[in-house]
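can u do me a favor
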């Protein structure tokens, strides 16, 4: 299941997000997702494993085994 969030950022925060996205060759939405996911893993609210990562990206984990 995918849930969309709307997040209000001030200009300074948005500019920082754009810089981070550019430096990691991501679009801003993907960068925000990456930052949020990494922080949830860091504080122990989300497990870090490849199965979860591929499902989040909409990929079929069985397809990677081909």
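np, heres the sequence
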């Amino acid at each position: 299941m995918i849930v969309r969030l709307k997040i209000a950022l001030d200009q300074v925060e948005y500019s920082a997000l754009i810089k981070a996205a550019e430096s990691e060759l991501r679009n801003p939405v993907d960068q925000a997702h990456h930052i949020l996911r990494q922080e949830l893993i860091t504080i122990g609210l989300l497990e870090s494993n490849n199965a979860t990562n591929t499902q989040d990206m909409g990929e079929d984990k069985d397809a990677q085994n081909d």
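The chain has a mean pLDDT of 84. hope that helps!!
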